[in-house]
């Protein structure tokens, strides 16, 4: 069983949308997947309540203290891929998730107020024992080169940056309203193809 923690210190970074998208792509690839929602707001849990699909995706809302037990149960039940959706502004929960996951993904919007939160994320990763991690540039404007400027800044700060960029696409919010992902709503959309590329990249690393 392989696991990925999706963490961010800033709300609105697209963390839950990214976690949901990667989990569904795992299902679409034929894996048995668990999406663990540690956020008290239960964004992924509520998204799951809106789903109609009967698939190989189990969405579990859990307090962070039970994460080791939930991961143990997932492994015992033959889950192949676990995605852990963490709350923003919750350092200790993010630390525990990062400690237990095989890899960490950090969605970040390409503007300074988001980029400045990465110092806190670096502290979290250090406290978690420096797990393998990379930054995902997310919700990037389609026009302009803001994502490229952010990539250059991140590289200059020593962060590893995922080669895939998720651009600002209405398909993500449209799909989320229905308890779906962009890949389920419109598999040939740009939003769907970008998420699939991200999943393929993460899957190779795991």
Describe, in plain words, how this protein is organized in 3D.
By secondary structure, this protein is of the alpha/beta class. A 7-stranded parallel sheet has the order 3-2-4-1-5-6-7, sandwiched between helices. Helix 2 links the parallel strand 2 and strand 3. Helix 1 packs across helix 10 and helix 4 packs across helix 6. The chain is globular and about 45 Å long. The model has no long low-confidence stretch (mean pLDDT 93).
Descriptive labels:
206 residues, alpha/beta, 7-stranded parallel sheet, 10 helices, 7 strands
Write the layout of secondary structure elements.
Blueprint: E1 2-6, H1 15-28, E2 33-37, H2 43-49, E3 57-61, H3 67-76, E4 81-85, H4 91-100, E5 103-108, H5 112-115, H6 118-127, E6 133-140, H7 146-156, E7 166-167, H8 170-177, H9 182-185, H10 190-205
Parallel strand pairs: 1-4, 1-5, 2-3, 2-4, 5-6, 6-7
Helix pairs in contact: 1-10, 4-6
